[in-house]
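Lab meeting notes turned into a lecture example. A postdoc, R.K., suggested we walk through two folding results consecutively so the class can see how the record format repeats. The first protein's sequence and structure tokens come next.
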Amino acid sequence: MSIELNCQDQDIQQEYAKRQRLDTIFSKTLSKARTILKRKCSDSSSSESKRLDINHEYSGLEGVKLPPIQLPVFHGDYLKWIEFKDTFEGLIHNNKVLADIQKYHYLRASLKGDALKIIQSLDFSAQNYNSAWQTLYNRFDNSRILVNNHLKALFQIENLNKESALGLRSMIDSVKKHLFALKSLQLPTEHWDAIMVYLVSGKLDKFSSREWEKRKIDNSLPSLNEFLEFLKNRADFLETIELSNVTKPDYKSNYQDKRSRSLLTSKSRSCNFCKQNHLIYLCEEFLKFSVAQNWDKIKQLNLCRNCLCTGHSYKQCKSFGCKICKAKHSSLLHENKPSDIHVNDNSSINFNPNNDSENEPNKIKLSTNTSENNVNRNEIVLKNNCSNNNYVLLSTAKVRVYDRYGNTHIARVILDSESQSCFITEDFLSKLDLDTNRANI
């Protein structure tokens, strides 16, 4: 009404148009304001809900005391700088809650040796923290020196002289660690697969290297990930074998120990008759007596009449009996004993090896200078049927032999019960893929 009263007739239509535009702008503005208010209310309620959820999630950890995080210690080794820098910046340097004096305290506590000497000239104050950190950063964050040190470490990875699960795992860790450091220094390590495979494979032991060559099916270049996966599987296999060898009883070692003990006992055994360091059936004092006197001596000394030892009776003795009459007594106690011989320094042996008679066996005549009472006991003819045949027949057998990987191989073995050593051909040794050690025979 006011517009109509104050305006002329020709201006009424223009005023109506302005009013309509103003109403439209007001309605749009009011609608936008309501939308913004709704969004703000929704965000605040969502934040409050998340905060309540987080508080509820960690409410159970209020009574749990977590161990403190130990800061890394840096001694000035370029190979350790990147690890130290990333850790210290994440925990201390970029922490907005800590004051500069606190950061400086943590920095000095984390440095040792040559690294600490670099900032020792700076006073311990909040104003010097940034200067100390920048000085340390400029000293060790040298890309050229860092790259050279990590490349040198890669080329100096230790060669493996024998199969070792621990050695393979250490090799894998070294390769990954240094390549990751070089990649963080903006080097294109993703294109180094062929170089790294060639470098590291040349440091493997001969057995692992042989297994790696067997896996190359075609002429395509293997990737570094494939090579590292092979090393991991190889280490798992060797670790399983090493664990099985630890739990497996060492029968060979036990046999050698028993043999050593038995030999030691035999050497330390003394004569039960004269107490000298020899066996009783080699005792000159015992052999010079007659059979009847020997029987009496055996009874006096309470010896076994079968083996001439102490500690058991002849009924419990497991030794063989007399070689002449097969009775349960020693051959030295036989009435016509062939071993009732007196041996002295004047003994002589006459042996004629050139006896051409086929029917007459070779004879060895043993004669001694003794008293007339023992003439009949001091001469004996030892007979040996010699044959001109130089061939010996030994039994053989086919056996299955397992190599180091559990595969079976068929081998021909010679069974010789008198053999003191065992031998194997080099060709069969290579099939079994076994380690060798030098030994004196």
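The second example is placed directly after the first for contrast:
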Amino acid sequence: MEEIRRRAGADDKPLRMVKTVLHELVKLRGAAIKGHLSMIPIDMKPQPIILAYIDLNLETLAAARMLTSTAPVGQNHWGDSVANNSSPATHSAEAQLKQELAAIFKKIGDKQTCTIGLYELHRITQLYPEVDIFAQLQNASEAFRTYIRDGLAQMEKNTAAGRDAF
């Protein structure tokens, strides 16, 4: 955050533009924005500035009641669940997550986008470890569920070995 404050004083127009776009995205997507950060390393030390800025926007917009869909205020851990809270906004976030999972499963089912879909699903399982992705696949074929299970296991092995997930 200090880097953002330092650069903001230098009349950094590109930074202002990025901050404005990010602010609008957080306002529109709420906590679900965290599901779209597949290329941001969430476990890096120090944590990337964008994550702190998104958290700050979520808190500020929640306090001003300007979020379209919100997670509980004060959630700063990127793996925290929105599924354990029973507020109406949380149900909206859960519905959004289900829609995102459905879109990811569709990508996995397409030969051209299956690797990207598996990567996004792997990222979702890291961000929301308590979400049972296989509950959404109960009507899918056993072969599809096995393909996903094996693909996620391979990505986990690659991540543990320090390589890219895919």
